TrEMBL record:
CDD domains named in the record: USP-like (cd00293)
InterPro entries given in the database record: Rossmann-like_a/b/a_fold, Universal_stress_UspA, UspA
Family that this chain belongs to: Belongs to the universal stress protein A family.
SUPFAM superfamilies (alphabetical): Adenine nucleotide alpha hydrolases-like
Domain UspA: 3-132, 150-276
Protein name: Universal stress protein
Length: 281
C-alpha cells in the first residue's frame, strides 16, 4: 500500500516520521511505499531575495527519507506549490495512495470554529482514507500522543453505507489491532436502520466478525449528540485511534461546519482514521 505523508517541516509534523513505533504500525497494516509531500503556499513567491524555498524543503525531505528508508519503506519526495489540502489530495490520487497521513496538534474550542487548517480541509475533501496523527499540543519538542496508531480502536457507526465502508478498513487494520470498542449513538432517525431493526443486534454482528480475527471487542449503545457521545467514549476507553466514516463532499457540504466526522477530527485527543465515501458513489 502507498501512503502520502504530508509535512510542513515543523517540529510537530516531524513527530510521526521520527516515531519508530508509528512507522512499525503503518508497516503492519500494509504500507510499504511512502510519499513525503510538502507544499509551499501560493502566496510565498519564489523570487523573494535570499529565499530558496524549494531547495531548503527538498533537503529537509531528504533527511526524512533516510529515516523512513531505514525503517524498510520505499520513499518518494514531492515539493509542490499551491493550496496545501488540494495539492496533498491531488498527489494522493495521482500515486494511487491507500492512505493519507497528516499531523495535527488539535485546536482550542475557539479555534475549532475556524475553517482553514490543513487537517480539517483534508477531512472535507480527501478521496483516500485520512489518518490524522495527533501531536502534543503545547510541547516545545512535541511527540505523538498515541504511538501505537491502531492498537486500540474506537469504531463509531450509524449503520449507513459509508459507516459500513469504514468498518471494511478492519480488513487491514486487524494486523495491528488488539481491541476495539464498537459504538452506536441512537438519534431520532438512524439512517442505516430499517424500521424495527435492533441496533444492539447489528453491533453484535460486527463484534462477532472482529472476534473471529482475534480482536477483543466490546459494544456500547448511547443516546444523545453523536459527536459528544463518541468523544465521551474516547475519554472512557482511551483508544489509540477513532475510526469513522465521513459523508459526501458536495460543494455545499464543504462550506458547512458541524458534521460528526469534522467535530471528531477537530476535538479528539486520539488519532482519527477517517474513511471517505467511495469515489464512484
Amino acid at each position: 500500500m502507498k501512503a502520502v505523508c504530508a509535512t510542513d517541516l515543523s517540529a510537530a509534523s516531524e513527530a510521526t516520521i521520527e516515531s519508530e513505533t508509528c512507522l512499525e504500525c503503518l508497516g503492519r497494516v500494509g504500507v510499504d511505499e511512502m510519499h513525503l509531500v510538502t507544499v509551499i503556499p501560493s502566496n510565498v513567491h519564489a523570487g523573494m531575495p535570499g529565499m530558496d524555498f524549494e531547495g531548503r524543503r527538498q533537503r529537509a525531505l531528504e533527511r526524512y527519507r533516510g529515516v523512513i528508508e531505514s525503517a524498510g519503506f520505499d520513499v518518494e519526495t514531492h515539493v509542490v506549490r499551491g493550496t496545501p489540502h488540494r495539492r496533498i489530495t491531488g498527489i494522493a490520487t495521482t500515486v494511487g495512495a491507500g492512505i493519507t497521513i497528516v499531523g495535527s496538534r488539535g485546536k482550542s474550542p475557539l479555534e475549532n470554529r475556524v475553517i482553514g487548517s490543513t487537517a480539517r480541509n483534508l477531512a472535507r475533501t480527501t478521496e483516500t482514507p485520512l489518518l490524522v496523527n495527533r501531536i502534543e499540543r503545547e510541547a516545545e519538542n512535541p511527540d505523538v500522543v498515541r504511538e501505537h496508531l491502531f492498537q486500540r480502536m474506537l469504531y463509531a457507526t450509524d449503520f449507513s453505507e459509508n459507516a459500513d465502508r469504514a468498518f471494511e478498513a478492519f480488513s487491514y487494520l486487524r494486523h495491528a489491532t488488539r481491541e476495539t470498542t464498537l459504538i452506536h449513538v441512537e438519534t431520532p432517525k438512524d439512517p442505516g436502520l430499517r424500521e424495527g431493526e435492533n441496533p444492539e443486534n447489528r453491533l453484535g454482528e460486527l463484534a462477532a466478525q472482529l472476534e473471529e480475527w482475534g480482536i477483543e471487542t466490546r459494544t456500547e449503545l448511547r443516546r444523545g449528540d453523536p459527536a459528544d457521545e463518541i468523544l465521551g467514549a474516547e475519554t472512557t476507553y482511551e483508544p489509540t485511534a477513532i475510526l469513522v466514516g465521513s459523508r459526501g463532499h458536495s460543494r455545499l457540504r464543504r462550506l458547512l461546519l458541524g458534521s460528526v466526522s469534522e467535530d471528531i477530527v477537530a476535538r479528539a485527543d486520539s488519532n482519527v482514521l477517517l474513511i471517505p465515501p467511495s469515489r464512484t458513489a
